[in-house]
Amino acid sequence: MYALVEDNNITQIITNPKTMVIGDVRYPAKIFQLWSQSELNAIGIYEVITDSSNFKDEKWYINTNESYAFADNQVTRSWGTATPKAHADSLWTQADSDDGDLPSDKSVGDVKVEGLKTQLIRTIKQQASGLLAPTDWYVVKASEVSDYSVPTNIATYRASVRTKSNEMETAITNASDTPALETLYTYTRQEDGSVTRPLGELPTLEI
Q1: Is the alpha carbon torsion for 174, 121, 134, 195 positive or negative?
Q2: Which of 65, 63, 67, 66 is nearest to 84 (CA)?
Q3: How many other CB atoms are there within 10 angstroms of residue 128's CB atom?
Q4: CA 91 centroid distance within chain
């Protein structure tokens, strides 16, 4: 990515090499491949340097629009301070009702906008349900056939999925803010070479 700088102002962002008309001169697109940086700079074309120090994972944060600045003969692309997404639900309030904003199918205290916690817990429940589904038939058969019981390894596995799911949901619920939620999901390499996250993983069935 390049920028055209004229009179110390960025006048154009160039995402792909193209023919450029600068002043009264037309330059072919191949100058971007053939010319040195100093030669490009001499006609006002600068390679854009990206500063992503403020850019955060969009799963957890709302980033600002990118901006471009020219200083010290360098064009920099950067972002402002990111805003954490809401970790808790926002609720419909009496003020919403008084202002006429409360939908007819909602009451004061109902969820207005789901926070990350609600979304993440729903995902955990769905994942746990998906893991249990293939062995549901054991439970159904045990309930319908008097002389049949769920194999011990299956019963143990199903219980471990529920236990771990509950532990994960509790960890999410207890997270104090969005950065704490992000930490739960952040994988790090351990001394033994394994890669784990504080939230842990749902167990899988070993046949």
Answers
A1: negative
A2: 63
A3: 20
A4: 23
Reported pTM: 0.81
Cα–Cα nearest to 116, from 154, 79, 151, 89: 89
pLDDT tens by residue, 156-165:
999 999 999 9
Quote the CA–CA distance of 91 and 114 in Å, as a whole number. Answer: 9
Contacts of 127 (CB under 8 A, 6+ apart): 165, 202
Give how far the C-alpha of residue 90 lies from the chain's centroid of Cα atoms, to the nearest Å: 20
Query: 11 is written with which tokens?
Result: 């006048």
Q: Is residue 182 within 8 Å of 57, Cβ to Cβ? A: yes
CA–CA–CA angle 39, 43, 44 (5° rounding): 110
Counting Cβ atoms within 10 Å, is residue 154 exposed (0-12), middle (13-18) or buried (19+)? middle
Q: Is the pLDDT of residue 206 over 90?
A: no
At residue 78's C-alpha, the angle toward residues 74 and 83, to 5°, is: 165
Q: Which amino acid is at 31?
A: I
H/E stretch holding 12 reads strand 9-14
- What SS3 state is found at 13? strand
Q: 1-28, pLDDT tens digit by residue?
A: 999 999 999 999 999 999 999 999 999 9
Phi, psi of 136 (to 5 degrees): -60, -30
Closest Cα partner for 126 from 191, 184, 202, 70?
202
